[in-house]
Write a structure and sequence with these properties.
Helix content is 62%, strand content 3%.
Length: 666
């Protein structure tokens, strides 16, 4: 659907009296540039910890200690309910992040890192509880969530590395190791984008699989077998994830002053998302109630009475009043666009959706009344508060190590919306730049006192330093220059570097990366096959006595047993090769194996692209085209003149650095 244009007001209307239309408003501040985004987000990580951050960390410790003390006293059913709550949050956040990435939604950069971090921490916290789902499904959720989070971080870690320089500082060494030699070349960006998309798809598959696993586990534990249960679990997972992301976005925007990166448009979109999925969840539960009243038998109506007025009533009404009904206030634009109302409602919705897990699981399992459960519920509530404290502590520590908003994707969004967001021309004669370029060029036999790019530059077998480094204001100009130089009879060896993904430059340089698909498919098939083989091996021990009887049991289990066949041996109620025990975990195993395959392929692509001497750190954040000799003769002066003769709107560089170090042509 096309966006509605923003109304144009007469110039006589004072700006303060013009209404704020968020639908179609900018998703990034008008003054944000490539440089300002890098400075703001690296400062959020590298600046000394503030007093508020230290107080927040200290505030999470008491509930965590209470949680550690009360964990042994929490009943297993309530512990499993806590695991289901965290699994729902993790799956919802991962689906939101993955769907926005696959749909190529440009404004996702403001909330994607929050969603990925929340998914990773939520899945990790679920693993600390008695898990009601299959262990393979939860492991796949953790693996895919971590893979997407780590892959999306690579360019940002390189920015932090360049910001700290080559000093002996421990954090500098850490970021140099974690960035895996990232240089921002066209091939690396291409591999990175494809890896992130593949991991997003596998993350969605893992999230759906673990929610199906939860639905099957709930059907086995309780008397809920309606067909809307899996749909309701999926909708509520996305709703809880959206509520948590909204609360985190409001806090992040205010605490770090990132109003230009997490804008009012982001908050408005999150409010609409909460409203839509809250309405869908209400539809699921109202449909369940109406169906039971109109078409249900006596047992279903008795269950409905128990849910509305009996011992399940606290679970149901807490779920409705805290988890679903508050979402409908977002029909009012003023409430939806209020950061305070959005943050509080999002947190309330995320917690309220957990009430259905925490209360209903124990009552449904034991059938006891609420007064008998009060001590256990109080212990479970305190434990849940402690797990929330552990989640908050994880976020506080995590965002002291990595940027809370993606630097690379936010820079791309700024270049798309702000005409002046491009990198500024590099300084002429900057000492650091001059020294770095001089060291790079002296190996080719050129001195610092020569004129820029005069004469042919001899090649050496040991020093693969570039003959020319051209700096551009945009990717489009870089791509035009690359096409121009590639059209010559003896084209030089070209490579492109930039602060954001460069699909146009990659196409101009004929870069391609196809190994990720092969590695992903191989890993997925291998992991699924290994899981099925392991389950089949375990199935042998659970067969009835006698091979013939066992095979007969397998054949008969596919049909409804008649009284005449009642004497034949049958398989256990939950056998290892059933749909629930084989197909769903096999899908999860395939998602985890595919994620590992993509990680291997991405590491391989990064390693293959780390050729040549590293570029000067002062040129980080610029669009660069390196020109290296591919054959003899190589005349850098002619190439520089050819670049500088291009039209300003069609490929002329801002500067060209040649063998005379630090002496750019402009």
């Amino acid at each position: 659907m096309t966006e509605r244009p923003q109304p144009v007001f007469p110039s006589s209307t004072p700006p303060s009296s013009r209404p704020a239309f968020l639908y179609g408003a900018a998703v990034i501040g008008a003054g944000e540039t490539v440089a300002s985004i890098g400075e703001a987000l690296t400062a959020a990580v590298l600046a000394p910890a503030s007093g508020g951050w230290r107080i927040a960390v200290a505030g999470t410790l008491p509930p965590i200690l209470v949680w550690i003390a009360l964990r042994p006293s929490v009943p297993a059913a309530l512990g499993a309910a806590g695991a289901g709550w965290w699994i729902g949050i993790a799956a919802g956040c991962l689906m939101i992040s993955g769907l926005l990435l696959l749909a190529d939604v440009a404004w996702r950069c403001g909330i994607a890192r929050l969603a990925q971090s929340a998914a990773l921490l939520g899945a990790g916290l679920a693993a600390l509880h008695p898990v009601p789902a299959h262990p393979v499904s939860l492991a796949a959720l953790i693996v895919t969530g971590f893979g997407l989070w780590a892959a999306a971080l690579l360019p940002d870690l390189a920015v932090l590395r360049d910001r700290l320089g080559a000093g002996p500082h421990r954090r500098a060494r850490l970021y140099r190791a974690l960035s895996l030699g990232w240089r921002g070349s066209a091939l690396q960006w291409l591999a990175w984008e494809r890896a992130c998309r593949g991991l997003a798809l596998l993350g969605i598959l893992a999230a759906v699989a673990v929610l199906i696993d939860l639905a099957l586990a709930a059907a086995l534990r309780t008397d809920r077998h309606d067909t809307l249960l899996p749909v309701a679990l999926l909708v509520e997972a996305v709703l809880s994830g959206a509520g948590l992301i909204a609360a985190l976005a409001v806090v992040l925007r205010r605490s770090l002053g990132l109003g230009g990166l997490v804008t009012g448009r982001h908050l408005d979109i999150l409010g609409r998302l909460i409203l839509a999925f809250g309405l869908a969840a209400l539809y699921c539960h109202v449909t369940e109630i109406v169906t039971a009243i109109l078409y249900g038998d006596a047992a279903e109506r008795a269950r409905l009475t128990r849910r509305l007025l009996g011992d399940e009533a606290p679970a149901f009404w807490t779920f409705m009043l805290a988890g679903l009904l508050p979402t409908q206030f977002f029909w009012i634009p003023a409430i939806r666009r209020s950061p305070a109302a959005l943050g509080l409602t999002g947190a309330l919705v995320a917690c309220g959706l957990g009430a259905d897990h925490v209360l209903a699981a124990r009552i449904a399992a034991a059938g006891t009344g609420l007064p008998d459960l009060l001590p256990e519920l109080m212990a479970a509530g305190a434990a849940a508060l402690g797990s929330v404290g552990l989640f908050v502590l994880g976020l506080l520590l995590l965002f002291r190590l990595v940027p809370p908003v993606s630097i690379a994707e936010t820079r791309r969004l700024a270049l798309l919306h702000n005409p002046q967001a491009g990198p500024s021309p590099p300084p002429i004669g900057h000492p650091a730049l001059r020294g770095a370029m001089q060291g790079a060029m002296q190996g080719a036999g050129q001195g610092a006192g020569q004129e820029p790019v005069q004469g042919a530059m001899p090649r050496t077998g040991r020093d693969p330093s570039p003959g020319l480094v051209a700096v551009f204001a945009s990717e489009a100009g870089l791509a035009e220059a690359a096409r121009e130089l590639s059209a010559s009879d003896a084209p030089p060896r070209l490579d492109a570097f930039g602060p954001v993904p460069m699909p146009e430059a990659g196409a101009a340089l004929h870069r391609d990366e196809r190994s990720l698909n092969r590695f992903a498919l191989s890993g997925a098939f291998l992991a699924a096959a290994v899981y099925i083989v392991v389950r089949a091996a375990g199935f042998v021990g659970e067969l009835p006595s006698g091979i013939a009887d066992g095979l007969m049991g397998v054949a008969v289990s596919a049909w409804t047993l008649s009284p005449s066949l009642s004497s034949l041996p049958v398989l256990p109620p939950v056998w290892p090769l059933s749909w629930a025990m084989a197909a769903v975990p096999a899908l999860s195993a395939a998602a985890a194996g595919g994620s590992v395959g993509i990680a291997v392929a991405l590491l391989r692509a990064l390693r293959g692209a780390r050729t040549g001497r590293p570029l000067p750190s002062d040129l980080a954040g610029h669009f660069l085209l390196t020109v290296e000799p591919a054959s003899e003769p190589f005349n850098p002066a002619a190439l520089a003149r050819r670049l500088m003769s291009l039209p300003a709107s069609a490929g002329r560089p801002l500067a060209v650095y040649g063998p005379a170090a630090g002496r750019p042509l402009r």
